[in-house]
Amino acid sequence: MNKGLNKVMIIGWVDGDFEMRYAPSGRPVTSFSVATSRTWTSSEGEPRKDTEWFNVVAWGHLADLCHEQLSRGQRVYVEGRLQTRGWEDGAGRKHYRTEVVAQEMIPLSDLIE
Question: Quick one: fold of 11-81?
């Protein structure tokens, strides 16, 4: 059996730029960003911090829940899979965007400080 694994789990903070729309089929879709941060000490002993931004897309009932329950700055757990979409703009340039397609979302602001 040839099976692969595509699973992503992130805990981070929600950006406030939510976009909720409806696919031509009428199915709801919500897009938003989640920031994760990590800290470390450089070889020179300097503290360092790096922030990574993830584009998240939720569909169906989960899209509604994300739109209703999440707000800017809120801590959230998102689980899903990575997907890269490609498209061509009006000038013929190719663009790509990698997204986390959410399958699970848990608001954490009330659970973890």
Answer: OB fold (Dihydrolipoamide Acetyltransferase, E2P) (2.40.50)
